[in-house]
Write a structure and sequence with these properties.
This protein is of the alpha/beta class and 312 residues long. The chain folds into two domains: 144 residues, VC0802-like (2-Layer Sandwich), CATH 3.30.2130; 149 residues, Vaccinia Virus protein VP39 (Rossmann fold, 3-Layer(aba) Sandwich). Helix content is 24%, strand content 28%. The protein has nine helices and 16 strands. The strands form three sheets. A seven-stranded mixed beta sheet has the order 12-11-10-13-14-16-15, with helices on both faces. Strands 1-6-9-8-7 form a five-stranded mixed beta sheet, with helices on one face. Strands 3-4-2-5 form a four-stranded antiparallel beta sheet, covered by helices on one side. α2 packs across α3 and α4 crosses α5. It starts with a strand and ends with a strand. The model has no long low-confidence stretch (mean pLDDT 96). The chain binds S-adenosylmethionine (SAM). S-adenosylmethionine binds next to α5 and β11.
Length: 312
């Protein structure tokens, strides 16, 4: 087993093109895996200096493993740790045959909220019939960054609540009873339902109406308004600012900057939605540079990223 210097980035589903914009100096591409490693050079890439967002998982300690048989490859992986997720690329069948010889892990939908898994989840693919590329350490505790929630098909009026749930899982804390949340771009009310169901008091702002049954929830107040013309002082102190407004990333940044300057919001979860096919990386970098915050592509995100900032 030979460790190589660098990373392997697994592109967010459908957004390989954005990942390649972020990684113009990729050393190889295998399916949705974009490699930036070399056998000889020192680590060629400083992730903190040049952040990468359009990934579902990043392999942090890639290695190459030459092997003769499927069982030999499986044995070598098992000797490192229990959980390995296959990422089939060119030698898909053979990759899955190796996976068949590895311990299985539960992939049942998870009921929200759940404890984030703590066991490391490795990842591997085959570069040729006898050469495996793998990493025991990855950024996501889920296989290739993927997991499903046990869905509520009756109460929320849209499925958008799943990305708020996922963001809250990554945040590691929840809005609770008595906390005040602003939900901007709330219609038809999936996020408002999720926040109100946790016991928080929600002020839902949208130019469009909320689904009536969400508007009737006891801890929901609804305001038909352009969120961006509301100043922080108009709203007052809030525990959570949640935004799923469809807008240009720049418009969101302009509004969020006012909230940051005001100091009136403690926690933020905002979707930064790309417009058309464009990736506005400059604005995303502005969000990412806010101290104590991070930008992720969540498994439940589409052509958008999620910005999370939590009170210290
Ligand atoms: C993706 S939808 C939100 C879905 C919602 N989070 C849910 O869970 O059901 C985006 C919403 O942004 C709203 N929107 C767009 N521009 C807005 C603005 N300037 N102020 C308030 N709402 C806006 C749209 O009316 C739309 O309802």
């Amino acid at each position: 087993m030979d460790f190589v210097q660098g990373y392997v980035f697994h592109a967010a589903d459908g957004f390989l093109r954005h990942l390649l914009e972020e990684l113009p100096s990729a050393t190889r591409i295998d399916g949705d895996l974009v490699s930036l490693w070399s056998k000889e050079e020192p680590r060629p890439f400083d992730l903190s200096a040049r952040p990468v967002f359009w990934t579902r998982n990043t392999w942090l300690e890639p290695f190459l493993l030459e092997f003769n048989s499927i069982s030999e490859a499986a044995r070598a992986l098992k000797s490192l740790q229990r959980n390995w997720s296959p990422t089939p690329t060119a030698f898909a069948r053979r990759t899955l045959l190796i996976a068949d010889q590895l311990p299985h892990f539960p992939s049942k939908p998870r009921a929200f909220p759940f404890e984030m898994p703590t066991a490391p989840m490795g990842a591997f693919t085959l570069l040729d019939e006898h050469l495996l590329l793998g990493s025991a350490k990855c950024t996501s505790p889920f296989p290739s960054g993927a997991f499903e929630f046990v869905e509520n098909k009756d109460d929320p009026p849209s499925r958008a609540y799943r990305k708020l749930w996922e963001a809250l899982e990554f945040a590691g804390k929840l809005p609770g009873p008595g906390e005040r949340c602003l939900d901007a771009g709330a219609s038809p009310g999936g996020w408002t339902w999720a926040l109100a169901s946790l016991g928080a008091n929600v002020l839902s702002v949208d130019r469009a109406p909320l689904e009536p049954r969400i508007e009737r929830m006891p801890n929901v107040t609804c305001m038909r308004h352009d969120a961006f013309t509301l100043k922080p002082e108009d709203i007052g102190p809030i525990d959570w600012l949640c935004s799923d407004v469809i807008c240009y990333p720049e418009a969101l940044w302009k509004w969020i900057s006012k909230w940051l300057d005001s100091g009136l919001a403690r926690n933020f979860i905002c979707t930064i939605k790309m417009q058309g096919s464009v990736y506005d990386r400059d604005t995303v970098l502005r969000f990412a540079s806010v101290p104590g915050s991070r930008v992720l592509h969540l498994w439940h995100n589409k052509h958008e990223l999620t910005w999370i900032k939590l009170s210290p």
